[in-house]
Specification:
calcium ion binding, about 20% helix, L,D-transpeptidase catalytic domain-like, LD_TPept_cat_dom, 2 domains, signal, disordered N terminus, alpha+beta, L,D-TPase catalytic domain-containing protein
């Protein structure tokens, strides 16, 4: 009888493990090792910020488990390094340390300059651009494999489709002139030797913008058009030689 009671006693004790059999001391669904090493939440409290929602629920719905206010991960910067918590998780940097690699530069500054925030040496991360010419009509730009942002575009209209394939930025000009169409192409980035390219909405000699109301619709003569502001940003961000994938 003594042994039977002992067996029953052990069977009814809650086991602090997560669904993947990793230790989860506070039973919030987030393994202790992830709370300590990735999210920097309290492994002994299921609700680190005390807002009434478990750490697991906040993380899985895109909210910060470190902020009692309803702040989304992309809007929260726990260590004030200029890099959102969402991007910290994407780049595997320390969400609680503004300078993960200890090189004297904040993680956010390194990402802005294109450097690896996990390497104290000055190592540039690879950049690439992807353009969806389908119904989405969008351009995404990536740093070190991480999608940094997305812009609406206008690709080629029917009969003048934007060529699909793998290209690279061959050259750049802040203000290129199209002899064929008689208009300016601000923030021009040439693809396929200049056969077509990425640029801001075309501009007529009188200063009027072409296709300003048609972003998101394929209306160009084959180039990829970006809106005012986003074109300059991408032009400044993109070095010559950057790979461009169009599909």
């Amino acid at each position: 009888m003594k042994y039977a009671l002992t067996i029953v006693f052990f069977l009814i004790i809650p086991v602090a493990v997560s669904a993947n059999n990793l230790l989860d001391s506070d039973l919030d669904g987030v393994p202790d090792q992830d709370e300590m090493n990735i999210y920097h939440t309290d492994w002994s409290k299921p609700d680190t910020d005390g807002d009434g929602y478990s750490d697991w629920l906040e993380l899985n719905t895109g909210f910060s488990p470190l902020n009692p206010k309803p702040a989304r991960l992309e809007d929260n910067d726990f260590d004030s390094d200029g890099l959102s918590d969402r991007m910290e998780l994407n780049f595997h940097t320390d969400i609680s340390n503004p300078d993960t690699d200890g090189d004297g530069f904040k993680d956010g500054d390194e990402i802005t300059a294109g450097y690896d925030p996990l390497n104290p040496a000055k190592v540039l991360l690879d950049k690439r651009i992807e353009i969806n010419t389908g119904p989405k009509q969008e351009l995404s730009y990536f740093l070190g494999g991480v999608r940094m942002g997305t812009f609406r575009v206008s690709s080629g209209k029917p009969g003048m489709h934007t060529p699909k394939g793998h290209y690279q930025v061959d050259n750049k000009a802040s203000r290129a002139w199209s002899n064929r169409w008689g208009l300016w192409m601000p923030y021009w980035m040439a693809l396929d030797g200049g056969y077509f390219g990425i640029h801001e909405l075309p501009e007529w000699p009188n200063g009027a913008k072409e296709g300003e109301d048609h972003l998101g619709t394929p209306v160009s003569h084959g180039c990829v058009r970006l809106g005012v502001g986003s074109a300059k940003f991408l032009y400044d961000w993109t070095p010559v030689g950057t790979p461009v994938f169009i599909y």
